[in-house]
């Protein structure tokens, strides 16, 4: 398993997919270290240690390269979510970037509102907020910029957002809500420099088959619409 993992790491490395390559190098190194411990043949141990040393050196070089890209504001990672794919709940998608130093989050999405009397957009935002509350980060402020619902749905939109705001305050989190009639981009930013752009915003999950079907409560089990996730790291996160 260790050999296969580092083989995958080398392939990803050659394809300039450095972030994924680094993860595979780290996992492969851990697996190979376990093999070394279990091996009694000294010649094999020596060969394994040589390879591990080479992989560790490359992993460190990749770490430095990624860190430099972050510092230069050039980091870019793209995740392709295939049609009907599962395993892309908010925790899975965002946990890598929600480090302990994150205290402020910006959400720009024009569709955090009612659509055709279906409130999934608002529920998605609520789920996202729940994920932030549960994360290792110490989020204290969430800024939401969205658009007003048209027609009779506006009052319900405002009521639901105020309810979310009040509920978040019970956890020591402030929700600031602003509206724009011209907003069309969708992005999420953390004050540690990470910015995530999702083609479909927070609404990339398909409608569940029923209220009691698998995936209704657990988004990791919910099939997704096809979409692209672009991740950037910038020195400075712009404010609204």
UniProtKB/TrEMBL annotation:
SUPFAM superfamilies: MIT domain (SSF116846). It comes from the Eukaryota. Signal peptide: none annotated. Residues 1-71 form the MIT domain. This is MITD1 protein. It comes from Rhagologus leucostigma. The lineage of its organism: Eukaryota, Metazoa, Chordata, Craniata, Vertebrata. The gene is Mitd1.
């Amino acid at each position: 398993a260790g050999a296969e993992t580092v083989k995958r790491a080398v392939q990803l490395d050659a394809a300039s997919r450095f972030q994924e390559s680094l993860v595979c190098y780290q996992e492969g190194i851990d697996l190979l270290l376990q093999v070394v411990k279990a091996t009694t043949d000294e010649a094999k141990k020596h060969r394994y240690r040589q390879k591990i040393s080479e992989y560790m050196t490359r992993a460190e070089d990749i770490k430095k390269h990624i860190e430099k890209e972050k510092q230069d504001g050039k980091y870019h990672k793209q995740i392709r979510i295939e049609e009907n794919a599962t395993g892309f709940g908010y925790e899975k998608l965002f946990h890598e970037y929600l480090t302990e130093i994150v205290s402020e989050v910006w959400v720009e999405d024009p569709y955090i509102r009612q659509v055709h009397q279906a409130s999934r957009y608002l529920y998605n935002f609520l789920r996202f907020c729940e994920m932030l509350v549960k994360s290792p980060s110490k989020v204290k402020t969430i800024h939401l910029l969205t658009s007003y619902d048209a027609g009779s749905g506006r009052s319900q939109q405002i009521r639901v957002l105020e309810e979310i705001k009040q509920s978040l305050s019970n956890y020591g989190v402030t929700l600031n809500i602003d509206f724009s009639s011209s907003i069309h981009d969708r992005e999420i930013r953390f004050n540690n420099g990470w910015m995530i752009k999702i083609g479909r915003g927070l609404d990339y999950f398909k409608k569940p088959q029923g209220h009691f079907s698998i995936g209704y409560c657990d988004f990791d089990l919910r099939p997704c619409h096809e979409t692209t996730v672009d991740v950037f790291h910038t020195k400075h996160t712009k404010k609204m």
